[in-house]
């Protein structure tokens, strides 16, 4: 692995519903993922996050793993229904106590806590009142943010407001493949605005409480037209607009791309909203997994584009194309397109699902993950050499976990979790990364 800047931040990431379990402990309320995963046919094999990795009870062991790995930061998410069971009202002390203990333990091991305030587990009561289609949810999120920051802000330096609002809008509200399972297609666009408004309000709440560094994490992808024809070029531009620009232009430039003007016409965007959304951030989180290849959709299709496979490249166990240079392409493209307004970047997720092999020696062999991480880190280094200001990199994920609609069928972790016994076994990729990070010091 090439040498990165001496102050480069190395970390790993997880998310609350994917690892915590304990869904009924200490006053936690019901989230949309509790409801969704318990609805027959929604999640592969009927899996739920009821237990997941039991991190809520086994977190000291997981902190030990972080220390053994040698990372300088841990990105986790806070479960809104643990703090406010119905999404409003007074915070539940026991819910905040859990994160309080976690933060103290991380700091005691020299690991910086990087909490994400929303990673898709919306309180079900708020969804029943409209969810992210309702403007009120953005203001409730600001109140929730204030409650968390009041408790943890004296020790947490770096905050992330939302995780991948594009994925939550598209999968949860447009296509219905994630919680809450709505199938609104383009009528889901108000979800984008209300999430971004929530982000801006949260940034202001965190600023008022002395936060040193605040960012949003967006899932971004290079978009490749399937052909050279005008139709495919237009389709790629439209997809880029929906996936990337819709969530970058507002926070970086204070405006929506032209295609989203309908939000204004529909009265979703109100006076002053864009100023709130564009409240200055200290950094931008980017989650990268792969490029997206796009062609024009046939006449009468509900969307003007279709995604098509990228041929001639390896694939993860999930079937996602492995294109390490796409990370460099993405970052250099953002650096050029948003010149003058792009803040420093953290890669807040990058990783892959693999078919791991347990050997007779008791080790878990995941050579494909080692190759994936090594190649992407080399690509990342090339972007830094090209002038992109990247300050840190977080692997997804520390642990095998509940992979949303795929249940437990996909394993992204540096550490294997036996879901029957909850035994943790560091994989070969864990040992490789530990050695690579030691060389960076």
TrEMBL record:
GO terms for biological process: cellulose catabolic process. The active site is at 164 (proton donor), 349 (nucleophile). Keywords: Carbohydrate metabolism, Cellulose degradation, Glycosidase, Hydrolase, Polysaccharide degradation. Its EC number is 3.2.1.21. This is Beta-glucosidase. GO terms for molecular function: beta-glucosidase activity. PROSITE patterns: GLYCOSYL_HYDROL_F1_2 (PS00653). Belongs to the glycosyl hydrolase 1 family. The keyword Hydrolase applies. Substrate binds at residues 18, 119, 163, 289, 396, 403-404. It comes from the Bacteria. It catalyses: Hydrolysis of terminal, non-reducing beta-D-glucosyl residues with release of beta-D-glucose. GO terms for cellular component: cytosol.
């Amino acid at each position: 692995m090439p040498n990165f800047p001496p102050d480069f931040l190395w970390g790993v990431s997880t998310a609350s519903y994917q690892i915590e379990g304990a869904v009924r402990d200490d006053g936690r309320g019901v989230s949309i993922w509790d409801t969704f995963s318990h609805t027959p046919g929604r999640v592969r094999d009927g899996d739920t996050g009821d237990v997941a990795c039991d991190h809520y009870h086994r977190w000291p062991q997981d902190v030990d793993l972080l220390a053994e790995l040698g990372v300088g930061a841990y990105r986790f998410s806070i479960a809104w229904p643990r703090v406010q069971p119905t999404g409003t009202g007074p915070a539940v002390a026991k819910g905040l106590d859990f994160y309080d203990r976690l933060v103290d333990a991380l700091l005691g091991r020299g690991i910086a806590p990087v909490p994400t305030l929303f990673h898709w587990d919306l309180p079900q009561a708020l969804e029943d009142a409209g969810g992210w289609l309702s403007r009120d949810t953005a203001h409730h999120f600001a109140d929730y943010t204030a409650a968390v920051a009041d408790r943890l802000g004296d020790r947490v330096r770096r905050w992330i407001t939302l995780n991948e609002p594009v994925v939550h809008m598209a999968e949860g509200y447009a296509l219905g493949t994630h919680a809450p399972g709505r199938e609104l297609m383009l009528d889901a666009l108000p979800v984008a605005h209300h999430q971004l408004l929530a982000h801006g309000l949260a940034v202001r709440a965190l600023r008022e409480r002395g936060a040193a560094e605040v960012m949003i994490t967006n899932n971004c992808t290079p978009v490749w037209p399937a052909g050279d024809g005008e139709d495919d070029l237009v389709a790629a531009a439209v997809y880029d607009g929906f996936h990337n620009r819709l969530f970058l232009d507002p926070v970086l430039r204070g405006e929506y791309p032209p295609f989203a003007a309908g939000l204004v016409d529909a009265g979703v965007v109100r006076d002053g909203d864009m100023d709130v959304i564009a409240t200055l951030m200290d950094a931008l989180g980017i989650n990268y997994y792969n490029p997206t290849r796009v062609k024009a959709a046939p006449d009468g299709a509900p969307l003007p584009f279709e995604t098509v496979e990228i041929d001639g490249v390896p694939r993860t166990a999930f079937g996602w194309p492995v294109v390490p240079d796409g990370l460099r392409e993405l970052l250099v493209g953002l650096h050029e397109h948003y010149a003058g307004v792009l803040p420093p970047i953290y890669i807040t997720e990058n990783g892959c699902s693999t078919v791991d092999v347990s050997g007779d020696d008791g080790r878990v062999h995941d050579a494909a993950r080692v190759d994936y991480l090594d190649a992407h880190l080399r690509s990342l280094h090339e972007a830094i050499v090209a002038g992109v200001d990247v300050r840190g990199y977080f692997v997804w994920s520390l642990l095998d976990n509940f992979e949303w609609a795929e249940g437990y069928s996909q394993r992204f972790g540096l550490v294997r979790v036996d879901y029957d016994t909850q035994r943790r076994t560091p994989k070969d990729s864990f040992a490789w990364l530990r050695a690579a990070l030691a060389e960076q010091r």
